[in-house]
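Annex B. Sample input.
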Amino acid sequence: MFSVLPPGATQAQQPQAPVVKAIDVQFAGAGAIAKEKILANMRTRVGRPYDERVVEDDIRNLYATGNVNNVRIFGEGKPDGVRVIVVIQSKPQLTEVELNGVSKLKPTRIRKEISSKPGDTLSEATIEADRQKVIDYYAGKGFTEVDVRTQLDVNEKLGTARVTFTVVEGAKVEIHSVAFEGNSALSSKELKKVVKTKPKNMLSFITKSGRLNAEALDADVAAIRDLYQSRGYIDIQVTGPRIARTDGRADVTYTVREGIQYHVGKISYSGVQVFPQEELTRGLKLASGGVYSPQAVRADVDAIRNLYGTRGYIDLQAGADTHPVGKGVIDVGFRVDEGAQSYLEHINISGNTRTKDKVIRREVALVPGDVYNSVRVDATKQRLLGLNYFSRVDTFPSDTFVPGRKDLNITLEEKRTGSLNFGAGFSSIDNLLGFAEVTQSNFDITNFHGFTGGGQKFRMRAQYGTSRKDFVVSLTEPYFLDRKVSLGGELFYRDASFVSSVYDERRIGFDLNTRKAINDFTAVRMGYRIEDVTIHDVDADASQEIRNAEGSLLQSQLSAGITYDTRDSYMLTRKGQKVDLQTYVAGGFLGGDVEIYGFSLEGSQYFSLPWDTILVFNAEIANVSTWGGGDNVPIFDRLYLGGPNNMRGFRFRDVGPKDENGEPIGGNSLIRGTVEYTFPIVDRVRGAVFYDIGGVSAGSYKFGGNINSDAGIGVRLDLPIGPIRIDYGIPIKADSQNDSSGRFNFNIGYQF
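Annex B, continued. Sample output.
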């Protein structure tokens, strides 16, 4: 390195730094990197002062490009300045990437797994990663004996390299059966539920079952061991699996040695002073005489930590000692070092380069001055992860200068929150449609540079299909005026032909809505909507009633509702209930051409039954009426039944009043009910049997008229694109104008 400060010189005597007069790039071996690219990664420039600290940064930057094996930079003193010499030993450049040995799969598909391309700088790490991706792809297709070798040929003089991937495919193996030997305490049925290895079946193209995978086999052994230990069989040994191959089919057998079942002897506690023992033990799983398991011991230690954590004892040390005292008996001793109680001093947030500080702080479940509640800190972490703004969230305490006070530190790593999606879909109502959608879950309408960081939800979607055309732009602020009140708005254009076979319906308007959670299970909402509704393209042979509905009406509507929801999951509910009440009024003091009011009340109750079966009861009652000067409920505001969302044995909207041509015209009152029982078939697939009953009456508050019913069977698929419901319903009771033949219904989402 060129020394700027001569030996023995002091800071006051330090001469002015010499100026860089020239930069000379030299190559040790072939020069595979353009000189301009090297200079672009350096801060040292001609005309600037020479600085050895900058030179050190330049060396690091050049190594970071991944294009060089060795770098040396030094300054050569000249009378008028410094000549900088950069010596580079560059990595070879790939000129060929060959693939050999692929015959049972498409070579073009295998090449997609290889990211190394001609023109890239040679990276042995990338080549090894590519080799592993090819192995994983083959294994995913059932080729578990595949071997992939790489050969690298480097020409140092030319600075070039060629890599060859040679695949030895082996035989494709499909799992024929999975069995267990030596198990008596636990049934094979119980064990099959915890292993990932499954035989091939007719739905394997969806579930990916039937493929032999070494990682899955290892995970299965651990899962079997954990299950046995959770039942008290601590000495369980799982050997294998033993794999018998015949003509491309594999029979997998796991062998177990169960040993004896262990029980809990005495339970003792040491170091406990803050809590009475009765309070400490109230939520613990272990009980003297009960089945012993390591999982229960760990769960109880965590429960003790959480109990102390709620009181601010975050320096707590807790553990458990176990002592065998006889055949099949283990004593457990819990030990606690309580430490001191802590209070929260400050909340420090770092890593949020886009998201506003207040968006994060409003998710923190405690404030300065509170007891440092570790359970609430964990809840804070889950809330922040639940925003889906961050790929990583870490929370940890730190000491302060104030005794008994701790700072909460939150470190974040942000991720992309916007998306642009294109796709196509199909359902028995919408038929075929394509869509394009832009979403930003961390939108900020006031940030004109990037429109991100404010925690708002933005969505713009356009879809076009054979039966509908939609365009929607929506924006939601979940904390309006920094209060936990959601405020949202939506501009929409919807044109649908699926609502009737003799006319189309178009809606253009704006919707404003607000929502407030009362507690963990209950929320209230209000909304205002103004829209222009047009009935158009009416068939010439349509009835007079439908022709009278042709044209446009302006509707101004105010709504209010309340929801009570205790479901354990929104995707596949096993237990809980949901009750939703919606009321609305249009016209009068709100203006517009439509004067109606109405309500709907819908409830669902879920029961979790043995063998992972689920029983669901769902019911709805609804009514719409005119008021003020209104004398007729418009056809687009009437109530309908029939189709995949309610009466599955009937055509869409086919249950209820019809005109003289048999075309549905809807009614003013509705009542319906559903009973459905679902059961598991294979992983991600459930079967269903159901019964629907309901009716629509022309008059208001005329519940119970024209009752129809159906029964049927269905399949529930939990796919990566979302849950899908396929049902076949057969009418049991149908009025004279309804089709009594069975119908298939297809729908995305299968919750009521």
